[in-house]
């Protein structure tokens, strides 16, 4: 019977370590955080198994100890093995930041740059393990711990086995670790060892970038797995239709049932997606070798020392945590304004200057979030240093034990999406007023070498005087390097507002914002996005590109100058898509609604 807190505690006085709390459990038993009795600053993780599993525990210890004697930063270190009358204890290095599974956002997926960072470390760790003649056989996010400095560490060698004997590779008998991550050959006769870990690493990567398991078992009886192996029309469906094509190809080459065709670890390391931005901060998606000097990435000083989380709090608990931490910032919390995949936005008021209100964007403290928040702040701060009426101003950033805070100008009239009249579109006159301001703001942003990459009505705030202000620079990046435009790769935004070229390996930056601005204008004029995603497999999008539905509502009731503008903005041909300057000079943009109301300019929906 696996140990429990109640059964394990009587043995504590016999151990060199004092039990603190349980941090995990599984079929093997339980894992506890323990501290050295002589020096409480020394922490270890203790894997506790029942005496009936002593042979398995001893085998795991011998394999793991051999790896630890050589040592590698991406493999958790085992310290010693202990036993009591009822249990066996494996004392391991303690990784204080939880496991990789905790880093995958709930009901969402991990950002590709972050997934790449962890995947590269996983491949490096597996190369070391295989180089010692060992195969892990149970690679999965729960068995990949995160230590300080965001270092990934492979753990749990309960299924590990030697696959080299006197330098010769031997075949292994089937042994399944975790079904969802097990390679298809695990269900057949004897097989090679290293390809098992390659497959499991591939499923781990897919779990990070997709956010869920795509099949329950790698077996032809599983319909989802059968569709993956057949490979027909995969890019027609989410999540693959919006996936970077280089990443998709990598997954196809790893997750193949043909072991001889499956990539090796060396081939994975040399893959273009894995090697992308080798010498750049991992969160940047620029195809360059160094940061633009315009946006340096200095370290920032926290208000108080941050502390590691073994389990990341859920988004639902952010409000409660923020209220608990309310006294740590110079602003007092008033009310929650909104939330998203990043965290939450709160209205706050200065403690020193009553009546001065700011909007605070809160994100949980973690090593993985640090670079993301810092990049957003540096880009947004540089824009604010120059200043523009149509870009929200950012004041400062602070770190507390629980959160990163971005303190910004408060736009008191909500978002553009909230300005849409219920059940009917916005009037062309009002849509033109807001669209002109959006184009002016984008011209300013692009002029400083920045592309936003997530323009949509929810990211456009309205201040007093009906002034539109672009906000949320979480996906923003620089697209100019030493005065030259550089190509970008897909990082993720909002699918309905994304340009069609994001599915290609590289693409230009400014046309992305032009497309998203065009979709935003379409939303204002038609009361909705007319396609789910910009792919020819989507019938509504294909009809728009081919122009087969222009005689139907709402297009047949739209001002011809306006329809012509939308057609020139929302074209899949990037070279023919209008620039911001060309949009400003277009006839509809120069139309004065105060003096000349064009016929059929008011759109109704059948």
Automatic annotation (TrEMBL):
GO biological process, one term: intracellular signal transduction
InterPro entries according to UniProt: Kinase-like_dom_sf (IPR011009), Prot_kinase_dom (IPR000719), Protein_kinase_ATP_BS (IPR017441), Ser/Thr_kinase_AS (IPR008271)
Database matches in Pfam families: Pkinase (PF00069)
Residues holding ATP: 47, 361
Alphabetically ordered keywords of this record: ATP-binding, Kinase, Nucleotide-binding, Serine/threonine-protein kinase, Transferase
GO molecular function: ATP binding; tau-protein kinase activity
Residues passing through the membrane, by range: none
UniProt-listed SMART domains: S_TKc (SM00220)
One GO cellular component term: cytoplasm
Designated name of the protein: Protein kinase domain-containing protein
Organism field: Caenorhabditis remanei (Caenorhabditis vulgaris)
Protein kinase domain mapped to chain residues: 17-274, 331-589
Domain of life: Eukaryota
């Amino acid at each position: 019977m696996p140990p429990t807190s109640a059964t394990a505690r009587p043995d504590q006085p016999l151990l060199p370590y004092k039990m603190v709390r349980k941090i995990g459990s599984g079929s093997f038993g339980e894992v506890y955080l323990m501290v050295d009795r002589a020096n409480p600053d020394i922490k270890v993780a203790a894997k506790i198994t029942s005496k009936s599993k002593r042979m398995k525990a001893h085998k795991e210890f011998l394999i793991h100890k051999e790896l630890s004697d050589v040592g590698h930063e991406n493999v958790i270190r085992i310290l010693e093995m202990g036993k009591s009358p009822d249990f066996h204890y494996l004392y391991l290095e303690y990784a204080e930041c939880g496991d990789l599974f905790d880093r995958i956002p709930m009901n969402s997926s991990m950002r590709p740059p972050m997934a790449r960072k962890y995947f590269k470390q996983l491949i490096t760790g597996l190369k070391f393990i295989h180089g010692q003649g060992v195969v892990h056989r149970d690679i999965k996010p729960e068995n990949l711990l995160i230590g300080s400095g965001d270092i990934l560490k492979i753990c749990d060698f309960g299924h590990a086995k030697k696959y080299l004997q006197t330098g010769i590779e031997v075949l292994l008998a089937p042994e399944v670790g975790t079904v969802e991550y097990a390679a298809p050959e695990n269900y057949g006769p004897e097989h090679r060892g290293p390809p098992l870990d390659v497959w499991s690493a591939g499923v781990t990567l897919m779990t990070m970038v997709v956010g869920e398991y795509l099949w329950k078992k790698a077996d032809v009886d599983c319909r989802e797995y059968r569709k993956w192996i057949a490979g027909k029309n995969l890019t027609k469906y989410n999540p693959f239709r919006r996936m970077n094509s280089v990443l998709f190809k990598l997954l196809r080459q790893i997750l193949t049932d043909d072991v001889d065709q499956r990539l090796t670890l060396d081939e994975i390391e040399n893959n273009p997606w894995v090697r992308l931005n080798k010498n750049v901060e991992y969160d940047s998606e620029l195809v360059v070798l160094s940061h633009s000097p315009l946006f340096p990435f200095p370290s920032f000083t926290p208000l108080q020392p941050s502390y590691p989380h073994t389990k990341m709090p859920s988004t639902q608990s952010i409000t409660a945590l923020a209220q608990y931490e309310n006294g740590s910032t110079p602003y007092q919390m008033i009310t929650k304004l909104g939330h998203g995949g990043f965290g939450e936005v709160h209205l706050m008021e200065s403690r020193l200057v009553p009546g001065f209100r700011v909007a605070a964007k809160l994100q949980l403290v973690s090593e993985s979030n640090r670079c993301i928040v810092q990049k957003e702040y540096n880009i947004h701060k540089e824009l604010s240093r120059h200043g523009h009426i149509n870009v929200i101003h950012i004041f400062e950033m602070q770190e507390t034990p629980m959160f990163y805070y971005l303190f910004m100008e408060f736009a008191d009239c909500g978002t553009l999406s909230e300005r849409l009249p219920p059940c009917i579109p916005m009037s062309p006159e009002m849509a033109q007023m807001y669209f002109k301001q959006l184009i002016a703001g984008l011209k300013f942003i692009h002029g400083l070498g920045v592309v936003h990459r997530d323009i949509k009505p929810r990211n456009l705030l309205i201040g007093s005087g009906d002034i539109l202000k672009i906000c949320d620079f979480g996906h923003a990046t620089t697209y100019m390097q030493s005065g030259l435009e550089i190509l970008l790769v897909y990082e993720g935004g909002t699918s309905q507002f994304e340009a069609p070229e994001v599915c290609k390996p590289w693409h230009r930056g400014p046309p992305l914002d032009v497309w998203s601005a065009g979709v935003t204008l379409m939303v204002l004029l038609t009361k909705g996005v007319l396609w789910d995603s910009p792919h020819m497999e989507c019938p509504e999008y294909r009809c728009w590109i081919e122009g087969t539905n222009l005689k139907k509502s709402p297009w047949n009731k739209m001002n011809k100058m306006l329809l012509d503008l939308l057609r020139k903005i929302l074209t899949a041909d990037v070279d023919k898509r209008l620039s911001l300057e060309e949009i400003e000079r277009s006839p509809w943009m120069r139309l004065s609604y105060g003096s000349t109301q064009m016929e059929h300019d008011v759109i109704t929906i059948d």
